[in-house]
Amino acid sequence: MLHLSRADLLIDDAFIAGEWISLSNRFAVTNPSTGEVLADVADCTREHARHAIDVAAAAQKEWAARTGKERADILRRWFDLLIAHADDLAAILTAEMGKPLPEAKGEVLYGANFIEWFAEEAKRVYGETIPGHQRDKRIMVIRQPVGVVGAITPWNFPNAMIARKAAPALAAGCAMVVKPAAETPLSALALAKLGQEAGLPSGILSVLPATDSAGIGLEFSENPSVRKISFTGSTNVGRILMRQGADQIKKLSLELGGNAPFIVFDDADLDAAVEGAILSKFRNAGQTCVCTNRIYVQDTIYEAFIDRLAAAVGALSVGDGFAEGTAIGPLISDTAMDKVCHHIADAVSKGAKAITGGNPHALGGTFFQPTVLRDVTTDMMVAREETFGPLAPVFRFSTEEEVLAAANDTEFGLASYFYSRDLSRIWRMMEGLEYGMVGVNTGLISTEVAPFGGIKQSGLGREGSRHGIEDYVELKYCCLSV
Ligand code: ADP
């Protein structure tokens, strides 16, 4: 049983157009650690999405007409409520998703920070005046909200991926209809409940738990009232949404898969590099889109680095996310387990060796041993595919040119990391890595104050920073003849 100081934050209704709706069709949400059913949640259909969109379209006009400060005040109250109830939100998150409780609390605070940040930005959606091109012309540019946004979010950050989208959208004056991942709708519903308490008007934020994700995705794509889709998830589903949105030239923000390289040069601070590798690889059991997927270590320090990494990884404790000291929770599903097993088997069959871990954990279920593979080469699946699990494959390289080419040899371009103390090399690498984000001597880069996002097939748009609001506004150029 989940113990919350506010039991009413555990919700199994859908939140549509400002109403909490109970439906006869329901689906079970389970704790991946124990298999316990946490809730039977209302299962929304495409028709519910249509209704939520209709109401959002009507409500959005009045919301957009408010001043930035009026919207900011409500968002700020929402932030305060999220902070006040962070422990409950973290418990709900750990229960439905499995990540260790301190990580869940970190996610809740991280998500809340976006709401605080964009509450402040709501007041700064500035326009521009441009000197006219003719003597009688005056030119103004105003920024206006895009309108109703359909959001589809994944299970790995059930709270923050919604906060990160809703904050800039609502700040700009948009309305949002959210379809959370079916594995993790409870965090989304709790967020919406606190948004309602903060004073968000009816219909400005709806949350539709649903198993028919394809149907809801189609409604978002085909309903002309939806002006934009904001999606975080796999590159494959991103492609589907892009294709589906083509008919209506739907605007898209896509935050898709990654294949992050983590490069350690021989001039690096090795202890710092090991610590960074642990944070960036094993956070959320390796289930984040910015998680390190490939570790490249320079020849001369390969053995030293791998010994230290294996020792640190071997010390990570695997267990229930609520247990004191747990560093690695369960994976989200059997499919996730299969993928990790498959990547390890493929690498080992081609010559890699597991120096720690390598197998499902004795706890059973979807617990997996944190694993380090050595002697990994580019012909192995781990070189190309995102593992999304607690597996650190360590490649060997000799020159900067070689490792830069290897790091960029992927269709993905989300996060990348490297460790070096040579200033010229740092500049060369920062400029040469074909990624939307580069961590230099750090394995943790996510923050609301910086633009998060990818290039190549890792996505479109940015979340966070002053740039984040641009995804939710349109420029309108007005030419005045005087
Ligand atoms: P993951 O592998 O992390 O589950 P997905 O891309 O499959 O990544 O899921 C991310 C989100 O996309 C989830 O909310 C899921 O329900 C939703 N989703 C999956 N398939 C589709 C689809 N065809 N159209 C719209 N949304 C989808």
Automatic annotation (TrEMBL):
GO terms for molecular function: succinate-semialdehyde dehydrogenase (NAD+) activity. The lineage of its organism: Bacteria, Pseudomonadati, Pseudomonadota, Alphaproteobacteria, Rhodobacterales. Belongs to the aldehyde dehydrogenase family. This is NAD-dependent succinate-semialdehyde dehydrogenase. It comes from the Bacteria. The keyword Electron transport does not apply. The active site is at E255. It comes from Paracoccus methylarcula. Keywords: Oxidoreductase. One of its GO terms (cellular component) is cytosol. GO terms for biological process: gamma-aminobutyric acid catabolic process.
